[in-house]
Write a structure and sequence with these properties.
The complex is a heterodimer of chains A (about 100) and B (about 725). Chain A is mostly helical and about 100 residues long. Chain A is about 80% helix and about 0% strand. A two-stranded antiparallel ribbon of chain B has the order 1-2. Chain B has a two-stranded antiparallel sheet with strand order 3-4. In chain B, α14 packs antiparallel against α15 and α18 packs parallel to α26. Chain B starts with a helix and ends with a helix. The chains are: A mainly alpha (about 100), B mainly alpha (about 725). Chains A and B meet through α1 of A and α29 of B.
Chain lengths: ~100, ~725
């Protein structure tokens, strides 16, 4: 059987990729996908813990996270669309109206 | 009962102050004057009647051997061991004061209804005047120092308001401010003295509260501080005296009083001659228990008093404004009163306060009548021969003139003679000092007679100089004309209305007979009556004695001390302030034959001084009334100029060049602006962290998260 640490390592790697992506990507769609990656990295670790501890609560968490992620995806994509309509760009560095 | 004495004028002030304008608008000036004048006089009348009823009414209860009526009103401040009540105390000292304050006050109120006739600020004037009566009576009746201070400040406020009554006249406004500011200097001393008294005695009350004895009793327990020793009693006494010099215009705070003559004449008479300015003497007499413990302070009081007396008298010689002459005369007479206090004769001082209230109020009101009759002329050089035109004013003022000069059998004679004799025979001061002070006081008495004679001669006798030129004298010194007052019509001088001369007549009678309440035993023995000094006997319980152990000596002359009469005769020989010896000396009856003979000799001397002064004045000024006076005197020794140079200008220059341009602009503004600049700089540095890029913030969050996780990981793995 695959030990728990493998799952956790994979989860950490995925999470790190997500974080680094958020920090270096400028394309807002890519940013968005990196956030999803981070969420799912966490989901993976939750499911793994749930399996190894024989406790179903972790899986319940994951369902809730997925529901929220779906809602967030709807809202986020709507914002991206309206941003593109106004700015004709997907570069986040150009959406800087609040900057001094 | 006592509270209604003070509240009646307050109610009068409230009615006139709140509704005076309404009444004037509704009824018109003429009818309104009658209503307002009636309210003002009636309120003071009620207060006068009550004062007389309380004073002469039922026997006063005796507390601790002192006759007194204490009337608590409510507890005002109570913090820890500190208690100040709103409570009144009527004892012989405040009793004498309320009698002449209300009595003279009532007469002056009546006079003022005539004098202020036609003034557009009629209601304002009487509101202030009534308020003054309330404050003065509170000052006098207060049973603790803090309430006394309320009255003290209150009369100062009313004085300020009334000096500056002619609000459109700059001189009056300046004089008001000067009076107020100079009084602050004195008040500073008063307040520090109050704090010191509380620290030293633990109470500021003049009457015992429960088991806490009064401050006078506490002070009486203290040992006498030898001459030259600067202990706490000396400090308190000197600080109290600083307060008194402010209110009573003594050196060095004397210059406000002559300027205060910019106020209407009834104000000069009431506040700046008869009542308020004697508050300093009242304070000194009230705290006599403290003063007698410090020969140093007594000497200072006596010397300042005598110096002020002669200083002001010489200035009075050379003044040409009728009110200025009287103002300097007031300062000079106040000096006499402090001289009396300083030599330990507090009662003689109070006696002079009372007689002075009569004759000086009379002289001021008389001068007001002259000014009124002369269409607001105040320069005595432009008067002369007025007795033909103003018979009643002239006659009454002559009574005041003779009384203040010390002509025998008039009121001023008794009080002044008493002070002179006490100065000579004092045992409160180092030996010899009393003799010198007596010399100064006697010389002042001579000068008093001379300058008063000069004023009377120039005003009422001689050529009618006002006919020399037509009335084109629009000088600056005319309060009324500055106010556009029209009650004086041009032309011949005329007698004032009855409302004005009736108070004059009453005051003249008082000036003549007022001294008979305090005839000294030596004088009464001349007419074969062996009576004690009734005034002195009455006031004795309220006043401390020099060298005495107790504040109160209820029983007058003890037989035991008669044996020591000889000792008393040689008074002022020894410096010893040993309690036993001096107690014996002061309590010894003054019936000792030798003493009486000396005292009578001095009475003869002071009589001669008065008469010589009158003759001298008459001889000098009746032949040449416009004689040029020494310039230095006319310029009042340039005291004001000296103060300007020595105090006012340095303060102004320091304020301008140091406090303003350095402290304010550089330091205070520099600090405020510096703080702002510091934060602006910090913000300028920190703003670079706010890039506006979401990814930078995300990086910061990441770093933060790593630090937090790392911290907890470190703790967990340790």
């Amino acid at each position: 059987m695959v030990p728990l640490s493998w799952y956790l390592a994979l989860s950490a790697v995925l999470f790190t990729i997500g974080v680094v992506g958020v920090l270096i990507q400028r394309n807002v769609i890519a940013l968005f996908m990196c956030i999803e990656l981070m969420l799912n990295a966490v989901n993976l670790s939750l499911v793994a813990f749930s399996r190894f501890h024989n406790d179903v609560t972790g899986q319940l968490f994951v369902f809730i996270v997925m529901a929220v992620a779906a809602a967030e995806a709807a809202v986020g994509l709507a914002i991206i669309i309206s941003l593109f309509r106004n700015r004709e760009t997907l570069n986040v560095d150009e959406a800087d109206l609040l900057k001094l | 009962m006592l509270k209604w004495i003070t509240l009646a004028p307050l109610i009068g002030a409230a009615i006139n102050g709140l509704f005076g304008k309404l009444i004037t608008n509704k009824l018109g000036q003429k009818a309104a004057e009658r209503v307002i004048g009636f309210i003002a006089c009636a309120s003071v009348g009620v207060s006068t009647a009550l004062a007389f009823i309380v004073f002469f009414g039922r026997e006063w209860p005796v507390v601790n051997g002192k006759p007194q009526i204490a009337e608590p009103f409510f507890t005002w401040i109570k913090v820890g061991g500190f208690q100040a009540d709103f409570a009144y105390l009527l004892d012989p000292l405040s009793g004498v004061y309320i009698l002449f304050v209300t009595g003279v006050g009532l007469l002056i109120h009546i006079y003022a209804t005539g004098y202020m006739h036609g003034d557009p600020g009629y209601y304002r004037f009487f509101c202030y005047l009534n308020l003054f009566m309330f404050m003065m009576l509170t000052l006098v009746l207060a049973d603790n120092l803090l309430l006394l201070f309320v009255g003290w400040e209150g009369v100062g406020l009313c004085s300020y308001l009334l000096i500056g009554y002619y609000i459109k006249w700059d001189v009056a406004g300046d004089a008001a401010k000067k009076a107020f500011v100079m009084n602050r200097v004195g008040d500073f001393g008063f307040m520090i003295a109050t704090f010191l008294i509380f620290t030293a005695f633990g109470t500021i009350s003049f009457v015992a509260k429960g088991d806490i004895p009064s401050l006078l009793e506490k002070a009486a327990e203290r040992p006498v501080e030898a001459f030259g020793v600067f202990g706490v009693m000396t400090a308190i006494a000197l600080l109290l005296f600083l307060g008194a010099t402010g209110k009573s215009a003594q050196i060095p705070l004397l210059t406000w009083l002559p300027d205060a003559m910019a106020g209407p004449t009834p104000v000069s008479a009431l506040i700046h001659a008869a009542t308020m300015v004697t508050a300093g003497v009242y304070l000194t007499a009230r705290c006599s228990a403290i003063f007698v413990k410090s020969p140093t302070a007594m000497a200072v009081v006596a010397v300042i008093g005598a110096a002020t007396a002669i200083f002001a008298a010489t200035i009075g010689l050379a003044q040409n404004d009728i009110k200025k002459v009287l103002a300097y005369s007031t300062v000079s007479q106040l000096g006499y009163m402090f001289l009396a206090c300083g030599v330990g004769a507090f009662i003689a001082g109070i006696f002079h306060v009372m007689t002075h209230a009569f004759f000086k109020a009379l002289l001021f009101l008389g001068s007001g009548s002259v000014i009124h009759g002369m269409s607001n002329e105040q320069d005595i050089r432009k008067m002369g021969g007025l007795r033909k035109y103003m018979k009643i004013t002239a006659a009454t003022m002559m009574a005041g003139w003779l009384a203040i000069s010390g002509v025998p059998l008039l009121s001023g004679f008794f009080s002044k003679d008493e002070i002179l004799w006490r100065a000579w025979s004092t045992d409160a001061l180092p030996p010899g000092m009393g003799k010198v002070l007596w010399g100064v006081a006697a010389l002042t008495a001579l000068l008093t007679a001379v300058y008063m004679t000069r004023m009377m001669v120039l005003t009422f006798f001689g050529r009618e100089r006002f006919k020399d030129e037509s009335h084109s004298h629009a000088g600056p010194a005319h309060g009324h004309s500055a106010q556009g007052d029209e009650h004086g019509h041009h032309g011949e001088p005329h007698e004032s209305p009855a409302l004005m001369w009736i108070p004059l007549v009453i005051l003249a009678i008082l000036s003549v007979v007022g001294g008979y309440v305090g005839v000294s035993p030596a004088l009464s023995s001349l007419v074969g009556v062996h009576a004690e000094n009734r005034f002195e006997h009455f006031l004795e319980p309220a006043i401390a004695k020099v060298g005495g152990h107790e504040v109160a000596v209820q029983t007058g002359a003890q037989p035991a001390v008669a044996a020591q009469a000889e000792h008393a005769a040689s008074s002022a020989q020894t410096e010893s302030h040993g309690a036993a010896a001096s107690a014996a000396k002061t309590t010894a009856p003054r019936e000792a034959a030798h003493d009486t003979r000396t005292e009578l000799t001095f009475t003869i001397i002071s009589t001669l001084v008065a008469i010589i002064g009158l003759l001298l004045g008459w001889l000098i000024f009746s032949s040449n009334p416009l004689r040029k006076m020494p310039k230095l005197l006319e310029e009042k020794y340039r005291v004001d100029e000296f103060y300007d140079e020595a105090i006012v200008n340095p303060i102004e220059q320091t304020s301008r060049h140091f406090l303003w341009q350095v402290v304010d602009v550089k330091i205070i503004d520099g600090f405020v602006n510096g703080v702002a600049r510091l934060f602006a700089g910090l913000a300028g540095a920190l703003r670079y962290t706010q890039t506006g890029f979401a990814r930078n913030y995300a990086a910061v969050i990441l770093v933060g998260a790593i630090i937090v996780i790392g911290y907890f990981g470190y703790i967990a793995l340790r």
